[in-house]
Amino acid sequence: MRFLQRLLSRIFSRTTVLAVVTVLVITIATLFGSFEFLELKAIDTAFNLRGSLPPTAPIVIVAIDDESIRETQLQWPWPRSFMAQLVSKISEGKPKSITVDVFWYEPGPDLCCNESLIQIIRAAPDVGAAQQVIKSVSGDAALAKAIAEAGNVILANDINRVEQSGFVLDEYRRPLPELEAAAMSLGLANLKRDEADGFIRQMPIYLINPNDEKAYFSWAALTAVHYLDAPLPTSIKTRSVQFGEVIVPLEDGFFMNVNFRGEPGKVFEQRQAYQVVNGDIDPTFFKDKIVLIGATSVSLQDIYPVPFEGSTNPMPGVEVNANVIDTIISGQFISRWPVLLGALAVLFLGILAYVFSISSRPLIGIWLTIGTGVAYLILWAVAFTQLRTEIYVVAPLIGLVLGFAVPSVERATTEALARRRVRGMFERFVSPEMVEQMVESGLEASRGQRTELTILFSDIRGFTTMSEKMSPNEVVDLLNEYLGVMTDVILKHGGTIDKYEGDLIMAFFNAPIAQSDHPKRAVEAAIDMRLALDQLKAKWAKEGTRPTNFEMGIGLNTGDAFVGLIGSEKRINYTCIGDSVNLASRVQDLTKDLKWPLLITEFTYERIKDEFEAEFGEARLVKGKTVPVGMYRVIGRKGAPESEKVRPLFA
Fold first, then answer.
1. For the residues of 397-458, what is the DSSP string, one character each?
2. Which of 122, 194, 223, 493 is 20 to 30 A from 594 via CA?
3. How confident is the model at residue 648 (pLDDT cuts 50, 70, 90)?
4. What stretch of H or E contains 80?
């Protein structure tokens, strides 16, 4: 209970505001992706903490590696006749499919050209005839034949974007017609690299060709679909695509989070291309397997940083796609929290850390904060390793640390000045005479007690709409002058200013100095505040410097409340709390519904009805009460001239 009271006493403190603002800034920064780079690095850390996993799909990579290039003594790109031999050798083993991650967009002459062939080409009657000669000896025909005889070859193509001089062209490129006709299907080889660091963590399952607005699947997706013997979907949802019984979750409509199985070159079986062609590999090794042919040589520049080992050991593009295929076939997809959940985690941990920071025992607060951080890290690790879920971790932990550190540092900084500021605080909120009486009676006398108070709440009507049309400096200047005038009126009648919240003023009467007529003082103050507002608006209208199209609502209630210095030795506030305070606030809110600027409860009315004109408005069941409370409209002092009476809102 004491902890709750301590928490309530600090709700309106500067420390709270500072902590809330700090946590909100981090939350908003999370929503706008300010921590995205660090969150991506956290994902990489999670992969490495989890470690390598065995593949679930029977995938074999036939590597076009440095040794194959050296042993064959062939320059890249290899002759099509050699590639035809490679496809034929693999096909002999009856694999489930053969996917070739090589682009064949142009005719490719073999290295069999000699002087006699050159003479034949030169003697051709026209360009078309020369192309036919080249085609007949280029090896394209042999490659097309090998692909057709295999019957299960998937070829790679891409959507190539060309940007030059402000001009952007998306080109859907296709292999040579005879190769495309021989292949089982075509699949896109496009990749997705994160803008933050160039790593690959997601891969497109399909892309839209801007030229014909059709969806084209990646070759990895087509390879997985063929292995699953699943039909291609006739429609695609923005968040998922279904291949038979497998539903692939998508991010941003196109991309799948890749569940990388482990470090580059250490998970999937690999065989060197030259060994396959030379017959060093028994073709039966490929039986019923998914065979991927692609470059793994660093010199061919088809390598990319991935979560495992990052830039120090990049992964070949063909192996990246092997991970995509394995993820789809296994159904072991990785999901990531939406950014909104990440922001909520920041908000929750930041608020929790602030609650820890206000503990009367700072050491306990520190250990609670550390324990919460460790527990969240365990949750993050378990979520990834066991549930395959990437939860936000960096931004929430920053929110936790700053949620505790900011208010703690602020309180430590102001500790030496706390006692000295108490007197200054009272001088701002109560009259100098009352301050002197309090000092004489001792500070401990104001530590806190339950007493009857009349509480006043006032708020500007139409302030939000009005302030939207003003600059920040104009809003501040207007509020400063307005609050200054209203404060003078309240202090004149012996009231104590509790707090300001923007244009809202909270004050109370009968503390710290007892006032037997506090209900009367409060009502008189409220009426004079209305008159002062009219005078202030008239002045502004004459000067033409500030808007005057606003009103003020005031609510009063009389009842018992706890009032006094609430807080710790390091920081205290003089305030009041209790049900009667809440009721006064709600009465002020009801001025909007009853369209009357000055309302009092039946409890205040019974104390002032002989001196002021008031009429019954209605009985309202307000929050926190079990029976309706009577609300009265204050008209003015009895016998007062019409000019001093309260008028309806905006009348």
1. HHHHHHHHHHHHHHHHHHHHHHHHHHHHHHHHHS-HHHHHHHHHH-GGGGS-EEEEEEEEEE
2. 493
3. confident
4. helix 80-91
Q: What is the pLDDT of residue 536?
A: 93
* Cα Rg, the chain, nearest whole Å: 39
Residue extents of the structural domains in the chain:
2-47+337-415, 57-103+139-331, 430-644
How far apart CA 228 and CA 303 sit, in angstroms, is 28
HEC sequence for 444-510: HHHCCEEEEEEEEEEEEECHHHHHCCCCHHHHHHHHHHHHHHHHHHHHHCCCEEEEEECCEEEEEEC
For residue 126, the one-letter residue type is: D
Residue 197: what pLDDT?
Answer: 87
CA atoms within 13 A on the CB side of 337: 23
For 197-210, what is each residue's pLDDT tens digit?
899 999 999 999 88
Q: What is the rounded CA–CA span in Å between residue 389 and residue 175?
A: 39
- 3 state DSSP class of 639: coil
| CATH fit for domain 430-644, picks 3.30.420.270, 3.90.1530.10, 3.30.70.1230, 2.60.120.260 | 3.30.70.1230
| Kind of pairing between the strands at 153-164 and 629-637 | unpaired
User: In DSSP terms, which residues pair with 562 in a beta bridge?
Assistant: 450, 577
